[in-house]
Structure formats: structure tokens, C-alpha cells
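# nightly structure sweep
# worker-07 picked up a monomer target from the shared queue
# config: single-sequence mode, recycle default, output format = C-alpha cells
# input follows
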Amino acid sequence: MKPQLKDFRGCGTAIVTPFDGGEVDYQAFARLVDLQVESGMNFLVPLGSTGETPCLEDDEKVRVLEKCREHACGKTLVAGVGTNSLRHTIRNIRLLENHGADAFLVVVPYYNKPDCRGQYEYFRAVASETDKPVVLYNVPGRTGVNMTAETTLKLAEIDNIVAIKEASSKREQILEIVRNAPEGFSVFSGNDDETLDLMRGGAAGVISVASNLAPALMVALTQACLRGDWEEAARLNDRLRPLYKNCFIESNPMPVKAGLNAMGLIKNELRLPLVPASENASGIMRDCLKGLEII
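# output follows
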């Protein structure tokens, strides 16, 4: 039987990591987590690509996760640990497993471009190194390679592989996983703008970027989907469409951080090779948030 995670459906936020003067701003991060909890977020995903984790030091990863745990009020935390090296991924698991993670998010290895055999063996090896649940993450736009439904479904038979964040935008592939997954295995949209369609097809929810900025609206959307209120879900989805688009007018999380800065929550600061959003993108985000009556 697969391990169960508390309230692991609906919306989970892939939360940003704020910086101030080149250092992680842990106080601002705590405020972001507080906002998520107050908005009814189902679960949180710290230390993912939206959190600029490749540019964090090990001690920073630990402190970010501990601060998230401290402020999460018992919410499930799915910590990002994936790299393109099995040894480094396992090292991240060892680093974080005793600091508040309930589960681990593991991306398909990027840059290496492994085939289906390499993907399967990699994830099987990762899962064997922890008793905690593992969530797969397929995002070909960042990794350079797609993980097929066949490979995902084969991995889904492993006891502690419990879900996938699917950001391939391959609708039929994703719905094939939904239809054929074993009991206890969940599929989450990895793209905000595909949430409604995939949840209508049976997906469990979304791991969201937009919910950094509009957590209450994203929670309302996914809850409407879960109870089958498709009219309300469509209304909310239409309202959120501009935000979905504008969160990616430049590389994630550049626009999101500009938006959070406009909300007065964080400094508009990133670590190289990412830079703050352009003046044009920042203006678009401000206008979008005003349109949603967030600022």
C-alpha cells in the first residue's frame, strides 16, 4: 500500500525563495508561508525550480525547509531534491529528510537527456534510498527530455512513488497516466493554465506558480474542480488566465518575484543567472494584480 500524505490534493504552491542583499530573506519567506496557510493552501512545495534551488547552498536549503515547517501549521511539505546526478539527489535527500520534509519532489534529470531505461532506473534508485513518498516531476521544457506515460506508469508500481507533477503539456499522455495509474498514485498539473482541463479528466490538482500571488483564488479553483462545480471552476479559471500567462512572460520566477514585490512582500531580487524582471514585465504584473484586486 502506498504511503498517504495529508490533504495531498487540490492546490500546492511551488514557493519562491526571497533574497535581500544577496542573502536568503528568511523573514520574508516566513511571511510568504503565512499567506499561503491563511489562504487555505492544501500543501507547499519549497526548494523547487521556482525557488531557485540550484543557486542555494546546503545550509540555506535546510533553513528554508525548517522555516517552512515552522510556519506551515502542519501542511504537507514536498521538498525539491532532484538534480541530474543520482549521488547528488541522494545527498539532498540525506540533507533534508530530518528537517521537515514529508515527501520529495524529484525532477527528470536535466541536461543528461536519459532514455526511458535510464529514467526508470534513476527513479527506482532514488525511491530505494528513502522511506518517504516520492513525487516525480516531468518538465521537458527545462530538462530537454520527456518521460512517457509508459515509464511513469511503470514507476507508479513502486510503493513509495506516489504522484507525478506533469508539465509536459502532452494532454493525452497525462490523461493516459490518470486513467491507468494504480490506486494511491496521483497526477498533478505542472502548468496553471492546464489545471481545469486536467482536473476535469481526473487529475488530483496542481502544483502552482500563480498561487504564489493569488493563493486564495487558486485554492478556490481547485476546490471547485474537486467538488465537480465546473461552472464555478470555469469562471475562476477565466478570471485567472491573464495571471497564468503573465507569470511566464519572462523566465520563472522573474515575473512572480516582480509581482510579490508589487504586493510589498519581498525584494525584487534573484540570483544569477536570473535577473529581476524587466520594467515592462514588472508593469504588466502590477496591472494584472490590480485587475485581480490583489493590490
